[in-house]
Specification:
Blueprint lengths: L2 H9 L15 H6 L4 H5 L2 H15 L3 E3 L6 H5 L4 E2 L7 E2 L23 H15 L4 E7 L1 H9 L3 H7 L1 H25 L3 E5 L8 H7 L1 H13 L3 E6 L7 H6 L4 E4 L5 H11 L2 E6 L1 H6 L3 H15 L4 E5 L9 H11 L31 E7 L6 H13 L7 E7 L3 H9 L7 E4 L2 E5 L5 H15 L2
Parallel strand pairs: 1-4, 4-5, 5-6, 6-7, 7-8, 8-9, 10-11
Antiparallel strand pairs: 2-3, 10-12, 12-13
């Protein structure tokens, strides 16, 4: 059984002789070949070169073509902000700027960057597809709807549900067509990546996500391909709802307890992927830290229906030695790294928190992965910016991205359990959830009154 067969058996909830693993490389591939993230995401040759390099270095059982959740959004008219070290992020929302659903058309192979990505996919399948499983990543309907509409989508859920259902039907069709285009290039697995679904309740998930994502999975299965539902953030409360959508596999990030997710997935016969810590372990840890975490997760996940992977796409500057260490744990050859026991704790970082009680302003600390690359983080920051308009003389805020060691130390000191989180005067207040602008403003105004400002 080669790597591809191993992974496909695991993704279909089979028992295998060793745990398969998938390093989700996107912008990190750019760092491997010495180009910027922007150059990489706009060039099919770089995407192919990055995948080949990741294959050579990390001994994976599967790889994504790339990890870019803005391809559909850009093709539909969302403006993007590109970065040297991050995936692009959405900077405009067409349906919040005067366009209607009728003005939008489902993207084709000729729209946006689809020609680049699909060309790369065909070449990667040609060069690696007989050895490992190739993933095509498609944006999920709910996250796409949010990109098109902006945070007003949360008002629509309550006040104009029929309008949102109309938008969701359109986004379902976009996701299905993207899956079709990837399948036509020869990929083995289509992963629907819908990170914003971690921000809604199980009831809202079942109303606004389930009816529109099940048909996408049905289409993928009809085409004879495996399918996965990939949700970032603290999706704990929605794990069961995700399984009920009938994907072959769900993938989770570090905010979800793997034991709990494994228990729920086993109940529904769904395989599970995850959830190596992106920053504390992969970005800032030592090779031994990564070996220990990989071994722990493989023990929990077991050899039936489990795939070891990061909780999201690997950060640009992640040391390759750390990822190679994970591969060594997967393949049972860790001798080289057992001699490299270098400490990587955060206790040596001196973080001094403000004197929140006596500060002359209400202080908001926004703890994120990175609002330039993480959709839930982006919309948390947008909510804060909107909520404090007119209150700038009484409120100050700052984003702390845990891709930076100092921000991880601050997160620990503030006792923030999950990201993204909004802390108000040192207290984690909105933990892994995006509040409405109205609710957030009311909470901030209450804090202003309590301080007598």
């Amino acid at each position: 059984m080669n790597s591809k067969e191993l992974l496909l058996k695991a993704i279909h909830n089979g028992e295998v002789e060793r745990t398969p693993w998938v390093p989700f490389v996107g912008c990190h591939s750019a760092s491997l070949i010495g180009v910027s993230a922007e150059e990489y995401f706009k060039n099919d040759k770089y995407i192919v070169e990055g995948a080949i390099k990741a294959f050579e270095l990390y001994k994976p059982d599967g790889l994504p073509v790339t990890f870019d959740l803005q391809i559909e959004a850009e093709a539909l008219g969302c403006k993007l902000i590109y970065s040297d070290t991050n995936p692009p992020s959405v900077a405009s929302h067409p349906l919040a700027e005067g366009k209607t659903i009728e003005d939008l058309k489902i993207p084709t192979e000729e729209d946006g960057r689809f020609p680049i990505v699909l060309k790369a996919s065909r070449e990667i399948v040609k060069r690696l597809g007989d050895k490992i499983a190739i993933y095509g990543l498609v944006i999920g309907p709910f996250t796409l709807a949010l990109h098109l509409k902006g945070t007003d989508i949360f008002y629509q859920m309550m006040d104009e549900p029929e309008e949102l259902h109309k938008l969701m039907r359109f986004c379902q069709n976009v996701s299905t067509n993207s899956a079709k285009m990837y399948i036509d290039t020869g990929v083995d697995v289509v992963a629907i990546v819908d990170p914003m679904t971690s921000q809604i309740s199980p009831n809202s998930f079942e109303e606004f996500v389930t009816p529109y994502i099940i048909p996408v999975f049905e289409y993928i299965k009809e085409r004879g391909k495996a399918c996965s539902l990939f949700v970032c953030g603290d999706a704990t409360r929605n794990i069961e709802a995700m399984c009920k959508c009938k994907p072959d596999n769900i993938s989770i990030d570090e905010n979800v307890d793997l034991r709990y997710a494994k228990e729920i997935c086993s109940k529904y016969g769904v395989s599970l992927g995850g959830n190596i810590k992106l920053t504390v372990t992969m970005l800032f840890g030592t090779p031994l830290d990564n070996i220990r975490e990989a071994e722990n997760l493989m023990q929990i996940g077991g050899k039936k229906g489990y795939i070891l992977s990061p909780g999201c796409d690997i950060p640009f500057n992640t040391p390759p030695e750390n990822i190679k260490a994970i591969a060594s744990a997967v393949h049972g050859d860790v001798a080289e790294f057992m001699r490299q026991d270098i400490k990587s704790g955060f206790e040596d970082i001196d973080i001094k928190l403000p004197d929140y009680k006596n500060a002359k302003k209400v202080i908001l600390d926004i703890i994120t992965l990175d609002s330039e690359s993480c959709a839930p983080c982006q919309y948390v920051v947008e909510a804060v910016k909107s909520a404090i308009k007119g209150l700038e003389d009484k409120v100050e805020w700052k984003e702390y991205k845990i891709k930076e060691r100092e921000s991880v130390a601050r997160m620990i000191k503030l006792k923030v359990p999950n990201i993204p989180t909004i802390c108000i005067d040192g207290k984690p207040t909105y933990i892994s959830i995006i509040p409405s602008v109205e609710e957030l403003r009311e909470t901030i105004e209450k804090a202003i009154v309590e301080k007598g400002l």
